[in-house]
Amino acid sequence: MSRLQELSTDSISACRHASVEDYTRFVYAHTEKRNYRKLLLNRRSRFVQRYPDLRDWFKAPLIERVGRLYGEHAHDASYPESYLARSYLKFLAVHGYAQFDWEWILAIGEAALGNILDYANGAAGVDQLVEDAVQLGYRQKSARDVLQWITDRVFLFTARPHVDLIRESDLDALAEAVLRFGEREDIPLFFGSVERYHRVMKTRLKCIYTMRVVLYHRGQISTEPRISHVKDPRPAVKPRMEAVVARYLPMRRLTGRPSTIRHLDAILRHFIAWLAQTYPHLETFAEVTRDHLLAYAEALNTLQNPRTKQPLAASTKQNMLSFLSGFFRDVVNWHWEDVPSHPLLYGGDLPKRPLRIPRYIPRCRGCKDAHEDCVTSRREFSHTISSCDVGKCSRWPTCLMMRSRRSVQQQDSSHLMANPPSRLTGFGILSVLSSPTEARSCTRS
């Protein structure tokens, strides 16, 4: 049983109706309009008659509990008892009579508790939460809209109507619920279309991130907020090929870096999309031949990097083909279905990387001591060499080289010119190279 299901079961077992006296007392305290008082009490009476035991309402289908579906007029709701009783149901949550499940909270769309909790008079700590957000640089109106969207739903879920009682686990549960709701097949009944809900989902996840930031700076949660990116669902171009990829990636994820798995996923999807466009009759990887892969390799020469608008670098093409070669080699060795019977690419088929020439330190204009002054100029950059942690610094090869040059700089200049330092081995880093010719000679040594 999932965590969300456990929370929903707990709420069902503890829920109960409020007495007529308690709800009447609340209605009279929150509105002075006689007609509106009568309307609220009548709606509560209809709901209780339809669901004498509140647990029966919790066990009903979500469509019945939501009451009004997407596109329906308020007067033509499919289940008017549930729809018209939303004010009463919110009252139950705020006053501890019931704890509601995330599916209903997200499906009803509008869940404002401002009138019930009297936000205008500073109740529930929402005003202070908004002020804290403003101190962090958020605009007051947008911060109030975003934070109230979160607090209203967390209060309905936890039945703890105060900002100081919001926990990190509550936000985790809300984020998980937002993502899980997107997996439902009946999303169009509540949001019109799957695409519309996914747009709403991205907005709501940003709201949750904003709440995390504010609560983190208040010292209310301990985990530093992280932005989570949600990609739009991709239509299945070749279902049987993508099924193999979906099975393959978790196997590689056991030993590969997350960045490696992302690149592998992107390359395999790109290859499948290319096959669908160039060879639309192919349905499985078992039908892919070596000639298809060689044609794909040729097609890479005509592609451009989407970021730089330049042709793909030789290293990029080699990486893409290397990933494909490893993919086919693995699935063949594992004897999976819908895959070729033998590897399709070998090491000799991959393009060779161009030979790299090491960088050198040019002679300064008007400088008598080419090495010493040039090394001094190289030391003037924003990074502190002495604080570099080899292996963790993004520029550690340069820092390693500069450390060696610092000791060289302290030597006598005449000794430096007579005995230039040798190159560093292990990482192919040169200590002092004064010309391109010397740099090229090191690639042959």
Query: How many domains, as an integer?
Result: 3
Structural category: mainly alpha
Percent helix range: 55-70%
Radius of gyration: 33 Å
Global outline: elongated
State mean pLDDT (0 to 100 scale): 78
Cα(first) to Cα(last) distance is: 65 Å
Number of helices: 22
Contiguous uncertain segments of 5+ residues: 1-7, 366-434
Describe the structure in your own words.
- Helix content is 57%, strand content 0%.
- By secondary structure, the chain is mainly α.
- It folds into three domains: 3-217, no CATH class; 239-349, Orthogonal Bundle (DNA polymerase, domain 1), CATH 1.10.150; 370-444, no CATH class.
- Helix 10 crosses helix 11 (140-158) and helix 19 crosses helix 20 (396-409).
- The protein is elongated, with a radius of gyration of 33 Å.
- The model is unreliable at 1-7 and 366-434 (pLDDT under 50).
Topology, please?
Elements: H1 3-14, H2 20-30, H3 34-50, H4 54-59, H5 62-66, H6 80-84, H7 86-94, H8 102-107, H9 114-117, H10 126-135, H11 140-158, H12 168-181, H13 187-191, H14 194-217, H15 239-253, H16 258-278, H17 290-300, H18 314-333, H19 370-378, H20 396-409, H21 413-418, H22 436-444
Helix pairs in contact: 10-11, 11-14, 12-14, 15-16, 19-20
Q: Which tags fit this structure?
A:
DNA polymerase, domain 1; 445 residues; disordered N terminus
How would you sum up this structure in a few lines?
The chain has helices at residues 3-14, 20-30, 34-50, 54-59, 62-66, 80-84, 86-94, 102-107, 114-117, 126-135, 140-158, 168-181, 187-191, 194-217, 239-253, 258-278, 290-300, 314-333, 370-378, 396-409, 413-418, 436-444. It is mainly α and 445 residues long. Mean pLDDT is 78; it is low at 1-7 and 366-434.
